[in-house]
Amino acid sequence: MAQELDYLSRRVSAGRLSRREFLGRATALGVSATFANSLLAGAAVAQAPQKGGILKAGLRGGAATDSLDPASFLGGVPIAFGKCWGELLMEMTPDGGIEYRIAEEIGSSKDAKTWTMKIRKGIQFHNGKEVTSQDVVATLERHSDKESKSGALGIMTGIESLKADGRDVVITLKEPNVDLPYLMTDYHLIIQPNGGKDDPAAGISAGPYKVTVNQPGVRHDGEKFKDYWHGDKLGHADQVEIIVINDGTARIAALQGNQVHIINSVEPKVVDLLKRNPGVTIQNVTGRGFYCFNILCDTAPFDNNDLRMALKLAMDREQMLDKILRGYGSIGNDFPISPSYQLFPEDIEQRAFDPDKAKFHYQKSGHSGPILLRTSEEAFPGAVDAAQLFQQSCAKAGIAVEVKREPSDGYWSDVWLKQPFSTCAWNGRSTQDQIYSTTYLSTAQWNDTHFFNEKFDKLLIEARGELDQDKRKNLYREMATIVRDEGGAITPLFNQYIDATGPGVKGFVKSPMRDVGNASALVQCWLEA
Predict the structure, then answer these.
(1) In a designed cystine with 361, which of 17, 199, 309, 480 is the match (CB 3.0 to 4.6 A)?
(2) pTM of the predicted model, to two decimals?
(3) Per-residue pLDDT reduced to its tens digit, 307-320
(4) For residue 216, how many C-alpha atoms fall within 13 Å in the half-sphere facing its CB?
């Protein structure tokens, strides 16, 4: 409760929640009006954003192959930098709500098939032009185009037509989708002049910072955009800088040496040591992200479901939670939905380590010889150790696994989506539909296990338009069961996000969506004078 009250009071200080709304929600939590008012008074003094300075972050998740084209955003660095220079139609709040940005409001027809967004007046792009409904339509068109290879393609395939009507954008769907507003928060959907069709990698949008330095895999800088429409609430520093530091030890050294103010992906095994540093704050939060071992279902020998099942049963999840996450997370069940999602299917039996059953399915598959597993610390903190633990648990089932450590730089471009068995990590999404549409729908650009299941696809489309919550929950349960028992992802862990901030950093807002405050810390935080 204390964490929620702190979050709500900071939203009041930032102008994102009214005083009346805060008092109402505090009362619902069982807090007296007197105490709630005292929290507001303290927050007004302690949390008032200070302007100026250069805010620096040392982040994992950058590569030489990164681009400013939002369609290609994959690693944590381009996403975090995109939140600096880009502006979305709307954004997810940590409590699961929607915060309007370029879109001023959104509404739908009764059948959730036709949606209308009103675009704010007076928002400027970095090139001086005003954002229009035509720019929004062009952006959504581009990310709906298979040729763009957008990471958002999976969630855009349901769009039948788009049109601009004055300040309104009208979206007509092929099938009803009650989750459409949440889909519009996808980080790929940065609104660009003419949708980015002219120059998608120009780095021009309507965000709080203008791009000044773009050195993929090395460094990214931005300077404050003086005409940013929301400048009283976001973008407090004069400049922001992201230094790509993929090595975990080097990130910690940079924070301890005051070379950066924020770092991400702190390994659980070093959290207690880092806490001892004066002024360092560990920013950990239970999230929807998960670590997985990806198998390409259409690639031999993994096109045999008995072999996939053998590997799932040979995963010692309890050991993974203890040794890799040190308790900073929870056990997964081979589908991408944690209990933090609405309509979570809680009655699906938890898969456990069973070497005897694993051996049975392995022998039934007819496979023999070592299985190559590719991994890298770039996949997730502790991925190499996790691969070696898996190698040991597989050996107990008579399955030989060979672990190959790949370079961090280029892992996402050369290994992920290409190699038949590799480690991977996913951040959560706003809804079950969004994560399933992004990575399990047959037509999804990021279907990273090559999972092509017609029945699953039909259930997903049906669930989008189902207004009865009980029926919708049953559909999601059936989908989860299909992915768990037939899919190519071994999902042993849901991880906490563990970031760290240095002395004088204020305004960090934890989010269950992804690390670095849903990649927004650089625009939300400020430096205390």
Answers:
(1) 309
(2) 0.80
(3) 999 999 999 999 99
(4) 17
